[in-house]
Amino acid sequence: MAVLPSSPSSLELTISMPGFASSQSIPSSGFKSEVICAVRNLDINQVPSGGVEEEWITMNMEDEEESSNGGPPRKKLRLTKEQSRLLEESFRQNHTLNPKQKENLAMQLKLKPRQVEVWFQNRRARSKLKQTEMECEFLKRRFGSLTEQNRRLQREVEELRAMKVGPPTVISPNSCEPLPASTLSMCPRCERVTSNAALKGPTKTATTTLSTKVAVPPL
DNA sequence: CTGCAGAGCTTCCTTACGTCA
DNA sequence: CGTGACGTAAGGAAGCTCTGC
């Protein structure tokens, strides 16, 4: 499950693991954006004019028997506004239904439990699609800003090179003596610059971050 | 305890239908 | 009126979990 940031300034992305918690009900609190997206165009679900709402549903429920065994082509059910509203409301509370809830909802909506089940399946798929689209947009924006940042830093590097500044000097944490940059390597785990000399010394945990120890001459 | 079969659920992909521009 | 795009209900395959034997 992915939770999108509530504000653009504090962006944090969690990518869902396929199949994870698939059979568990999802707490509605993590679905803020989801709920916003859940505002759907209910007009699509309008009933054919002429006040045949009940007939419309009944007809389709009877048809199913025939269409399932190679009979006439299946008819498509259109849910009424009220049915859609109730289903949406229920979906907002829970994205999955247990058999009891399904039965109750089906009875309340005058639908078959299978139809309620299918609606929830499709609804989950739609919200996931929406979520994926939003994540895609977010990643696109993030990529854009990172590219821009990369460009800026590259320019900065070029400027520094142009100034013909010598290699950065690192102060040893042990002796407080300047270390040549050639004795440095990047620690893959913490992504800090590690002094080889320091690691060979008495304290193995001695790491030196660039921001604090690299002596960069003032520009 | 372990292995297996079956039921019941899910996701994913697809098809078919209704509506609208 | 015909047509294509789009939204969505429903079918079916495959995978997972749970339960009983």
TrEMBL record:
One term under GO cellular component: nucleus
Pfam assignment, any one: Homeodomain
Main location: nucleus
Source organism, top-level taxon: Eukaryota
Recorded GO MF terms: DNA-binding transcription factor activity, RNA polymerase II-specific; sequence-specific DNA binding
Subcellular location: Nucleus
Coiled-coil features, chain-numbered ranges: 122-163
Record-given protein name: Homeobox domain-containing protein
Keywords assigned by UniProt, alphabetized: Coiled coil, DNA-binding, Homeobox, Nucleus, Transcription, Transcription regulation
